[in-house]
Amino acid sequence: MNKNLFIPCLCMxxxxxxxxxxxxxxxARGRTVIHEKSAIVGRILLVPNVExxxxxxxxxxxxxxxxxCRVIYREKSSVPEGRVIRQSxxxxxxxxxxxxxxxxxxxxxxxx
Length: 112
What we know:
- With 112 residues, this protein is α+β, with helices and mostly antiparallel strands.
- It has a single domain (3-105), classed as Trypsin Inhibitor V, Chain A, CATH 3.30.10.
- Helix content is 25%, strand content 31%.
- It contains 2 helices and 6 strands; from the N terminus they run αββαββββ.
- It has helices at residues 3-20, 55-64; strands at residues 32-35, 40-47, 68-74, 84-88, 92-95, 99-105.
- The strands form 2 sheets. Strands 1-2-5 form a 3-stranded antiparallel sheet, with no helix packed on it. Strands 3-6-4 form a 3-stranded mixed sheet, with helices on one face.
- It starts with a helix and ends in a 7-residue tail after the last strand.
- Residues 18-28 have low confidence and may be disordered.
């Protein structure tokens, strides 16, 4: 891109984002963006769906996609122990620096 056009284009993107909000699902994978509300600068990546997977596999898949992972255990669940009950954010587009929370059925293991 021509350097003379970069700043005006960036200003236009920020202006449009401020006026209409940021729709992450309409941004191509891997593009660098600036989120106006939380001052996040990062790449937009696809968060994989790991609901129903075992904790270890789900954590590897999330980290392999470029995200940090936080595991939260829930003892009272009808889901078999060790499986992901839900995730936050859900599968879809998100910033690469984001920590994905995995809600896992069962008690906290003594090895963690």
